[in-house]
Amino acid sequence: MVETAVTLKEKAYIHLRKLILEGTLQPGEVLTERMLVERLNMSRTPIRAALERLDVEGLAKYTPNKGLVVTELSVNKAIDLYDYRMAMECFVVSKLAQRAWGEGDRSWFEGNLKRQLACAEADDHAGFTEADAEFHRKLAEIYGNSEILHAMEQLQDKLYQVALTVLRKERARIKVSYEDHWRIYEAIQAHRGAEAAMLMERHLEFGKRILVF
């Protein structure tokens, strides 16, 4: 079966996004169509579309005399993004605590938390970071505001490397982060919205604080 242009564009985007988030493509690295055509073994059309999407989403940006480069996140910018996340996610969990949850959603979170624990015990920072991101994203998804969900997805992409850095810098943090998530989930299920928001703020504040020390 021949892949469509849309499929190839999506494939190129997913591949490049993964290379950026994992740090294979480093901040400040120039992204040229020619280099990526050879690296991904694709034509210029899907590569160009993928690069345009990375620019729109802030994972890369055009700079004078260089072209498109992988975005370098400054400490001040990361702190701003953490503040944005706190405002948004504290609101979301406080609202979710007012709702009745279905069995499917509860089952999903319990499975995700088990995966977080397994990654924490195995000292698997990359695996934990992915499960962590899914936990936060799922909260926004259940809340049901498409704008908040979209903003969350973009923030998580921008802060992925920061999250890995926090876990590697504070190795004991991986288990604490798992425990934070359990407490947030339990507070939501017990309909304690103010407590859930307070726990979420404390959880995100730690990551922000690590950046400046």
Automatic annotation (TrEMBL):
Protein name per its UniProtKB record: GntR family transcriptional regulator
Stored SMART domains: FCD, HTH_GNTR
Example GO molecular function: DNA binding
Signal peptide limits: none
InterPro entries, per database record: GntR_C (IPR011711), TF_FadR/GntR_C (IPR008920), Tscrpt_reg_HTH_GntR (IPR000524), WH-like_DNA-bd_sf (IPR036388), WH_DNA-bd_sf (IPR036390)
All copies of domain HTH gntR-type, residue ranges: 6-73
SUPFAM superfamilies from the UniProt entry: GntR ligand-binding domain-like, Winged helix' DNA-binding domain
Domain of life: Bacteria
Keyword Transcription: yes
Keywords: DNA-binding, Transcription, Transcription regulation
